[in-house]
Specification:
Strand order of the largest sheet: 1-2
Radius of gyration: 36 Å
Structural class: mainly alpha
Strand content: 5-15%
Helix content: over 70%
Shape: elongated
Low-confidence stretches: 165-197, 266-273
Number of helices: 8
Number of strands: 2
Largest sheet: 2 strands, antiparallel
Order of helices and strands: HEEHHHHHHH
Distance between the termini: 96 Å
């Protein structure tokens, strides 16, 4: 029964929340009894959907708008402004993310080029570290984090220790491949330049390993700085582990090699002109 439901709601369920005059009855498709005369002259009752009964609801809405209209408009404006602000913040984060990735990749290729073109092991290691520190400092500025050069070096050391495998691979590659690369470079005059082909192959491989290391360092640094220069509750090792697990090392090294070979070809071509 409609009236019984109304009384139940009014007197029990929302009694402490709403006054009786704040509750109105409405029906979108009320059932209306309709008498039908059958062929045998008997009268039967059929329930049919009647016209919507929403006049009281319309009046109540108009009454609320008249009383609270300005407040509702202000609230709606605040909600809209908050939504716009959220979109702007999200867009700023996306743009900063893109800029950070560009900084990281430029550092990756700069380190790869430096490693590939330099035959001296010690210089390889030092130049790579300088590029990594410069990358961290650039990222810190991008994320608005004040960081000194010594702070960047400390962060690099902490990341390198946490990365373990990749940085160890880079060190082995630098020590081993640099020696091979140096010997091939020295042998170039004696072999009439025949040793240059294997030299470039070794150099590109060494550069790709070093570039991969920088890429990992950059991604970890970006996460650390984006989190307000904090490792969070998990600590640096867990953060580094999550990031390294997400890296496609083969794909990244392949891209480094492709771009490096293209740059070296352009350089050689330019020298021939």
């Amino acid at each position: 029964d409609r009236l019984a439901i109304y009384n139940k709601i009014r007197d029990e369920r929302v009694r402490e929340l709403l006054s009786p005059n704040e509750i109105v009855m409405a029906a979108a498709y009320p059932l209306v009894a309709k008498a039908l005369r059958q062929p045998d002259s008997n009268i039967t009752v059929k329930m049919e959907r009647g016209e919507p009964q929403i006049e009281d609801l319309k009046l109540k809405i108009l009454e609320i708008l008249d009383q609270e209209g300005k407040s509702l408009v202000a609230l709606n404006s605040m909600l809209y402004a908050d939504n716009v602000n959220e979109q702007l913040v999200r867009r700023k984060i996306e743009i900063r993310e893109q800029s950070a990735n560009q900084v990281i990749w430029k550092a990756v290729m700069a380190k790869a080029m430096a490693i590939a073109l330099n035959p001296l092991t010690l210089v390889d290691i030092l130049s790579g570290a300088v590029i990594d520190v410069a990358m961290i400092l650039t990222l810190s500025k991008l994320y608005g984090i004040s960081m000194s050069q010594s702070g960047a070096i400390d962060l690099l050391q902490k990341i390198a220790i946490s990365m373990g495998g990749i940085t160890a691979s880079e060190l082995v590659a630098n020590l081993g491949l640099s020696s091979v690369k140096g010997l091939l470079g020295l042998a170039a005059p004696a072999t009439g330049g025949l040793s240059l082909a294997p030299y470039l192959s070794v150099a590109v491989t060494q550069a790709a390993v070093a570039g991969l290391s920088s890429y990992g360092i950059g991604q970890v640094s970006k996460t650390y700085l984006a989190n307000g220069a904090s490792w969070g509750e998990e600590g640096p090792k867990a953060v580094v582990s999550h990031i390294l697990e997400s890296l496609d090392e083969t794909s990244i090294m392949g891209r480094i090699k492709e771009e490096l070979i293209a740059k070296l070809n352009i350089k050689n071509f330019s020298n021939q002109q």
